[in-house]
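# step 3/5: fold
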Amino acid sequence: MESGEPEKGNYDKKKWKKIIDTTQSNYANMIKRLSRKQKVSNFVLIYYSIFLIINTLTAKYFPDFFDSSLAEYFGIILSVVMLAYSLINNSANYAVRISNVEEALNKLKTIKRDLANDNLQECIKKYNKITDTTERREDVDFFVTVKHLCKEFGINWLTKQHKKKISKPKGEEELEEYNNQEKVVNNYISEINVVVEEGKIIFESLWEFVLFVVPIIIFILCMGASPNGYTKIQSFLS
């Protein structure tokens, strides 16, 4: 079973639909995360390969404007980075994992569509079988799900407090449902370290930015290390 869900006692169809919704959201976030990592790995391999070719050709044909020794040094470092990403990309099996999670997500959609009180136990068995055989989501996937729920119910995921200017339902039944769901959301928040998970998201974005700008910075450094290249850079900036 997926962790990050309430204890499943004698829940009815309505409760189980919400549980499946949460699991679906987790799986959708898993697919996005794995797809993003796959794209970044492929981008690094292509982008750095092209840069290494340009780096080598520039050092060969424009030695007066490009420091060949420095270019060779950085070329070795970037080759190691490429090798690391190549190994990660091959061992991670992103395509297979994404396909498996997508298949599980589609099965959950079918279960939710067929869910009814008279076939509830059968659907629960199918649900448990799917979650038991599918890759476990990471905390960051669940955190994104929680953030969406917090936005829906006007809860600050950091303070666990309601945001201002949030109107609650007026009907007694709707208000009770709202309060129950609010309690569930707060329980979800308590299960994970939201600061750490948000930090992971920020760090990953910063790391991707660094991967993009490093070759550009290296190219400028190799030009700046050459007297003629440095003059060209000065004239370009002035």
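# step 4/5: annotate
The chain has eight helices and no strands.
# step 5/5: archive (pending)
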